[in-house]
Amino acid sequence: MAAGLDTAEGLSREVGVRRRLGGALWRHPFLKGLAVLSPTVLAFTLVYVAALAALFVSAFWTVDAFTSQTIHHWTLDNFRQLRDSVTYRNVAVRTISIAGAVTLTDAIIAFPFAYFMARIATPRMRAALFVLVLLPLWASYIARIYSWKLILNSSGVLTWSLHKLGLPAPNVAYSNTATWVVFSYVWLPFMILPVYAALERIPHSYIEASRDLGARGFRTLRSVILPLALPGVVAGSIFTFSLTLGDYITPTLISGASGQFVGNVVADSALRGGNLPFAAAFAAVPVVVMGAYLLIARRLGAFDAL
Amino acid sequence: MTKRMWAFVATAAVGLAFPAAGITKQHGGTLNMIAWEGYTQPQWVKPFTKKTGCTVHAKYGGSSDEMVTLMRSGGGGQYDMVSASGDASLRLIYGKDVQVVDPSKIPDFKNFGKAFQSPPNNTVGGKHYGISLQWGPNTLLYNTKKVTPAPTSWGAIYDPKYRGKVTVPDNPIQIADAALYLMKTQPSLGIKDPYELNKTQFDAAIALLKKQKPLIKKYWGLASDEIDLFKNGDAVIGASWPYQTNTLIAAKAPVKDVVPKEGATGWLDTWMVSSKSKNLDCAYKWLGWISTPKVQAQQAIYFGETPVNSKACAIMDTLSKGSCAQYHANAPLQYFKQIHFWKTPIADCGNGQKNCMDYTKWQQAWTQLKG
Questions:
Q1: Is residue B180 within 8 Å of B265, Cβ to Cβ?
Q2: Interface membership of B225 toward A (CB under 8 Å)
C-alpha cells in the first residue's frame, strides 16, 4: 500500500516537472528553439566549428623542417611569410579575381535564364528547364571537368569547330581562361536557382503598376525588377564566389603553368610539405574574404532571399 | 527466443574467433605497410601470405612527402614497412624512423645489380637501411612528328622554340633536372651532384627554371595528365617516365623517349623497416620474397619499371616479350653511370661542408616558381 502511494506521488511529481518544463518552453520560445535544435547545434559545434577553431589555432604554430613535427610555440611567422611573399599574394589575388569573374559571368548568364523561367515559360516548359538546370548535378563533378578538358584541348571539339568555320584556334587549353570557363559552367545552377526564386516572388501587380505609370520595358526592368531581384543575385553570388574560392581540383586539372589557387597551395603545404600550420594560415585568407563578403551580402538583403 | 539467439551469436563468435587466434599464433602475423599504389598487388601478396602466414595490410601513399608524414604519425610504429623513394629515404634515415637491415638475410641480394646493393639513398656509412626494389629513369619524351631532328640534349625543354608546348613534373625534385643540365653545360658552377647544391648553384638552377616557365604548358601531377597532354598535342616535349612512353606508344601516338647526352635523373625505391616494428620476422620474409626474380619481374611488368635483381630479366621476357630490354633490365653497369638517382637534398653536402640547400628550401622554391 505504502509502496503504491510512493509511486503515485512520484508520478505526480514527474507530471509536475513536465508541466513546469512545458510552461517554461511555452513562455520562452528561445528555449524551445534551442531544445529542437540542440542535437544539430551540438553536432555543428563539435564537428564543424571545433575543426575550424583547431585549424585557426594551428596557424600560429610552426613545423620543424627536419623532423616535420609541429612545434607548439606561438608565433606570427606564417602570417608574416604570407604578407611578405609576392608569390602567395599573387595566388590570393588570382583566386579572388577568378572567383569574382566567375560570379559576374554566372550572374549575367543566369539572370535572363531565370527571368524566362519565372515569368515567361509555361508551367510545363518551366519544369523542363528545371530539369535541364539540375541535370548536370547528377553527374560526377570530376567527370564534367574531364569532359571540359576534351572540349578545350588543342585537338578538342572547340578548336575543331572553329577550324571548320575558318576561324583561328582559340588556344585556351591549360590557361586561366579555361579555369574561368569551367568554373562558370560548374557553378551556374547555384546562381540560377536563387535568382529564379527572387524573380518569381515579384508580384505581377508591381509590373502592371510600373506600366500604368508610363514606364517602358527597360525602365521597369531597371527600376522595379532588378532592385527586387538583387538579393537573389547576391545570394547566388555567395555560392559561386565561395565555391570557386575554396576549390582546388578544377585548377589542378584545367589550369596551366601559372594557375595555382589558394586551395592548391594549402593542399601542397599540408600533404606534401607536411606543413599544416602554414596551410592553416593560408586557409584563413579565404575565410576572412568570405566573412567580409557575407557582411556586405547581408547589407544587400541576400539572406532574406535565401 | 532472444536468449537462444544470443546463445547462437555467442557460439558463432567463439567459433570464429578461436581458429583465427590459432592461425596468428602459428604464423608470423600482420605487416602494416605504406606503399606506392600497385606495389602490393594480390598477384604477389597472396602467394606470400600463403607461404609465410604473414598478412599484409597496405596503405597507399600519394607522394614521398606523404609517406614520410605517415611514417612519423602517432610517434611512429603504426607501420612496419615503407616503399620509400630516393627523395624520401634519407629523411627517414636521419629522422631515425627506419632501422638497419642485414642484407645477408636476403638470399637474392647477391643477384642485385652492383649499382643497387649500396646506393647512397638507402645506405649511409656502410649501413643498409633497406633493400632496393625497382628503379626507372626520368626520360626526355618527345613527339616525333613535331620535334625534328630528334633531341639529344635536355636543352630542348629550355628551348624557346617549343614555347607553350613543354611539360615537366610538378615535383620539387625536378630542380635536380635543371641542376644536372647545368652540371654539364656550365662547368664553372662546379656542380658535382645535382642533389647537393650550394646557394649559388641552387639559384642558378632556379633561374634556369624561371626562364623555362613561360615555355611550360602545364606542370603535370599525374602520369595520366602527361599522357593527355601528348595525345592531344598540347605538349610535344617534356620530362617523363617510361610508363607514359609505353602507354602512348600502345595508343599509337607518335612519341619516343631518350636518355639525353647529359644523362638523366632517376628514381630508386627501397623497402625500409620502421625502427619501431614489432614484426621483424615477417618484415625479413617480405624483403626476401619481394627480391625473388619472379616477383621482381611481375612487379616490373605491372608497374612499368625495372627490377634490381638481374635474374628477373629472363622471367620478364616470358611474361611480356622484349620487356627486359625495353626497361633496360639487362643494361651494363656503364648505363647507370649516367643515371643520377633521386636522394633527399640535405644541408650536409658530403664534402665536409654543411651549406647545401635542404629539401625544405627546394619545396619553397618550387612553390614560388609555380606562383
A1: yes
A2: yes
